[in-house]
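User: Some background: our group keeps a shared notebook of sequences we're curious about, and every so often someone picks one and asks for a predicted structure to add to the entry. Today it's my turn. The entry only has the sequence so far, pasted here. Could you supply the structure so I can complete it?
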Amino acid sequence: MSPRFSAARALLQLSVAATALIAAPAFAQTADPAPATTQADRPVEEEGDILVTARRREESAINVPIAITSFSGAQLDQSGAADITDIGNYTPNVTLEVSRGTSSTLTAFIRGVGQQDPVGGFEAGVGIYLDDVYLNRPQAAVLDIYEVERIEVLRGPQGTLYGRNTIGGAIKYVTKRLSDDPTATLRGVYGSYNQADGVLSGSVPFVDGKVKVGGALARLSRDGFGTNFTTGEENYNKDIWAGRGTLEIEPSADAFFRVTGDYTHDRTNARGGHRLIPGLVSQIPVLPNVFDTRGGLNSPAQDVVAWGISGFGEVRPADWLTFRSITAYRQDDSGTPIDFDALPAVDVDVPAFYNNYQFSQEIQFLVESGGFNGLVGAYYLDAGSRTTFDVRLPGTVTALTFGNVRTDTAAIFGDFTYDFNEMFSISAGGRYTWDNRRSQIQRNVYLGASPFFGGTTNPIVRQTDFRGRLSFKQFTPKVSVSFKPNDNNTLYASYAEGFKGGGFDPRGVGTAAPDLNGNGQNGAQGDQADIFNFLSFDPEDVRTYEIGYKASLFDRRLNIALSAFHSDYQNVQIPGSVGVVVNGIQTFAGITTNAGKAQIRGIELEGSAVLARNLGVSGGRLTFAWTAGYLDAQYKSYIDSRGLQVADRRAVQNTPDWTASGSISYNVPINDGALNMSAAVSYRGDSQQFEVPTAMLDQPGFALFDANAVWTVNKTFSIGVHGRNLFDKRYIVAGYNFLSQNPDTGAFNRNPVTGNFISTLGAEGILTAYYGNPRQVNVTAQVKF
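Assistant: Of course. Here's the predicted structure to add to the notebook entry:
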């Protein structure tokens, strides 16, 4: 038995023995857009059917042949969750982290599939949805949790109903429907590091309840976990204003319309990294506090503004037919300074702007007749993404990267289920997608800043001046069979495909393009065909086979969901950003190729159980819940920059082999309310930041412990105490590396004379880490009027 397996098994046994967890996730979606009632909201033994919309229609969760985890708004409030990344620790085979060097860009991986690089031109591998609106870019996607109905995680390819870039899965953030009665709610939080959050929400019905107007205003703030000793700013702080407004019109039981607008302004300070090695030239030592930094770059000011408006309409012209329309426009603009070297001097300093917009339209027709359920629809997306950043190196040398990407994608899709009888059903669906990418890339070298960041000089080297267009067509099918021996047991088998769009690498150096077409000219000589082939990369795709079992046993006291899957992951896009010397000038380059082919197999187990009824007092209830995920992710082919096959020396990034959690919760009624106490532990196995092992930056397995106590005094008032990462564990979530490594083992190369590390970009050497949050304890209070 391997040491990693033994350690994971020991920790799993410890978690069971300790019976420590937070409020348990419900292992299914809840109906959309109707208000949710999930496993956390009522005793397990009292539950009826949980309604879900994973297949875009309302049905019982136990009938859905998809691996789903859902967190209700009540669960998230009870656990003190702050943003969407907090659910990652309690969902099997899922990684959700704040991207390196930012405070609001999301890095998401599900079942080994995702995307770490947020630069325009690269697509995500996990789809993020806000009220059924797909978020095309990861900027401003670390969604704060307030006035949320539920958050759902769908694992595995969702290409048929949810489209491109959902090859790993999809995460749906669903906001609350407005109440039928006038309401007002005030929620406040105060805790460690002067965390001070306030959310004011409410709604008012008009016209006999057929028209409702509501909204929410949130102020989220916290001091930093550390300090930037160069600028004097707090590091890892929080400074956010956010709001949401909603208009709902329900003229009859067969028609519903909703318009929602949201706005977020994030002025959190730039998140500075922690150097893991002393400066190679300055010999500035490593700081003792991992949340402290010395980065000197403070321009442009860290500032993120994101807003959007969406319209949802649903009408039922006949009992068997429903029509839906989802229309949305979204935009986000970010200014962010990223100091790679985390030192006062200009060594590798990266001021950056991200500007994104998108318009989307989706229509759906749903048919229900006897044992037949069907859905057909169409989708269109028009999106633009502009990324601009300087890479400032010693000696005033600056490498500009400018990438402007326009995406037009359209799709038609359908999904159909036929119940042959009460025990056996079959589902089949498919989506055909047309995907068009237009890219403009400029790569220039300047002395001093580029014109985008205040410079006034002309470039001394022009590396890339490129415009290109790519078009892809892809069919993504899905088929499943389900067998229900009775109402409380379901077995299923499914096959699904998904794809992630191709494009052009905005970091690519056109002049470095080799003579790929054999005509005797290369990129440096202006061969546009060679530059096109050098900068472009194809879509990647996943084909997944899955079997599963869902059950509600012993009079609903035990609920379990078990799935096992095998995925063939092909044309894996591998971004590579390196330091190179062009015309004697050190600069920054990157190229993305479809270098990899991987096989990913795994098992996921989730469950909840009522351990005792009427424990201690009448109505006292003790429940236990758990999740466990195992991934065997291996590259079957990986061609490196030398043209060598190195699959056995590469690992799938951001993919721990084991993920697990366990929780115990005791709920006891008190007068008109109840007291709920819970404790939680979550475990993540070893994981690598990149495909090549990187000592000091890769994170060994670790466990986090949380605890909560919430007293719901009555329907008006509640108060809670929440503790997260109670043992103050330090763990790395992201990082940068620009040190010379052995390309096979990942071991750092050393200067044979000095014994120092060898820098591949800049003078000081870069091995910079970003960390997950330290121990935090806070008190929450909520008043409903």
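Suggested note for the entry: The chain has a mean pLDDT of 89. DSSP finds three helices and 39 strands in the chain.
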